[in-house]
Amino acid sequence: MFLPPRTSTGEHCSPLHSGEILYPDARCQQLDKLLGNARAAPTGTDSECRALDVQLVAGHLDAVLLRQLEQDALIAVLVRLLEAASTPFKKKKKQSGVWLTLLPLYLFTLVFVAGPLVYMFVLSFQTRAEVWGVVNQFTLDNYKNIFQPVYLNTFVESFKLALTSTLLICAIGYPFGYFMAKLPAQWKKRVMLLLMIPFWTSSLIRLYGWIIIFRANGTLDKLLMGLGLTDGPLKLLYTYPAVVVGMVYALLQFMILAVYSSAEKMDWSLVEAARDLGATPLKAFLTVTLKLTLPGLLSGVILTFIPSMGLFFIADILGGNKVVLVGSLIQDQLMKAHNWPFAAALSVVLMILTSLMISLYKRVTHTTELEGIL
User: Fold this and answer.
1) I need a surface site. Which of 8, 108, 270, 290 has the fewest CB within 10 A?
2) What CA–CA distance (Å, rounded) separates 245 from 32?
3) Which of 66, 40, 68, 67 is nearest to 53 (CA)?
4) Coil, helix or strand at residue 208
5) pLDDT at position 24
6) Distance between CA 214 and CA 262 in Å, rounded?
7) CA pseudo-torsion sign 73, 79, 81, 84
8) Which of left, alpha, beta for 320 (phi over 0: left; psi -120 to 50: alpha)?
9) What span, in angstroms and rounded, lies between the C-alpha atoms of 200 and 311?
């Protein structure tokens, strides 16, 4: 058996090593003393005694090693128990920090989103006062009045305008967003910048620019007469087509961005596989591309159809009050007729229609968020 060398009596004994376990100096000195006595035993006839002493020392060393292993195992168990006991406090501290971070967002949502919606819903069941304000008297007459021909016709006309605008926006925005996704990365950034520039100015200012274009003897009239296409000024301003053009101009970017968001994430190798299997370009588009970009297309429809029913300022500026939308009706009931409960009822119905369209979108696309927004 190999015996470690003995150190001098004037120095501290170096710890004995067994793997990663270290022995204290006092215990090491005792073992070192026993080993020294075993080495100093006489040879010859006493060799058997020396061998017996070495065996005793080795057995004592094994016992010390076993006790040290037991102590280390006990310390490891205690450390793990302490860590396990402190884990719930760490999780609670982390959760409290997350709640403190989210608290302003929840407060803002409750005060400025949920609060006005609840107030509008409650107001829609109240009664209009004779002069000003409302009376706390429950009634369903506000919802019954919506079915009167004059108000119901407003919903029908708004729906027609929204449908016409949305179809034109789809016809222009879908090809734009589709081919934009196929551009090189550098050109994608440039086109995206061009799409964002109109948002840097007020929509009202941009719509007044269309008045300059559509008015009599305006930019468009002069261009058409210069080309010999018309003999005199056209009455384009304050017409139904002018309102449609304004709607398309104001909402086209939302369709483009929604379609671009879906087309950019599409796996183009699927289209190539369809072509390799013998599909024509049209069939590959209808069976592969259109289905993969359908979430973006439907998202763009929602982002354009719903606002086009309520953007009353476009109808007022370009239509001259000749085209009345639901948004215009709500504004008139609030600001002119001062019939707040009826305006709230109109708003609730419009909100229900919006929720139904979003639910239909989720059911068709099996997604929980709108493309081009999140």
Assistant:
1) 8
2) 100
3) 40
4) helix
5) 46
6) 35
7) negative
8) left
9) 19
The DSSP secondary structure of 285-315, one letter per residue, reads IIIIIHHHSHHHHHHHHHHHHHHHTT-HHHH
How far does Cα 66 stand from its chain's mean position? 59
pTM for the full predicted model: 0.69
**Contacts (Cβ under 8 Å, ≥6 apart) of 157:** 323, 324, 325
**Pair 126, 134: CB distance under 8 Å:** yes
Tell me how far apart the alpha carbons of residues 35 and 32 are, in angstroms, rounded to a whole number. 5
> Token match 């119901």: residue?
152
How far, in Å, CA of 268 to CA of 357, rounded?
30
Residue labelled with tokens 């007469």: 225
Q: Is the pLDDT of residue 233 over 90?
A: no
Residue 21 · residue 68 · CB < 8 Å? yes
Distance, in Å, from the CA atom of 309 to the CA atom of 165, rounded to the nearest integer, reads 10
> For the chain, how many residues are written?
374
- Which residue(s) pair with 100 in the sheet? none
What the block records as the tokens of 244 is 């449609």
Q: What is the mean pLDDT of residues 72-87?
A: 68
Residue type (1 letter), 257? L
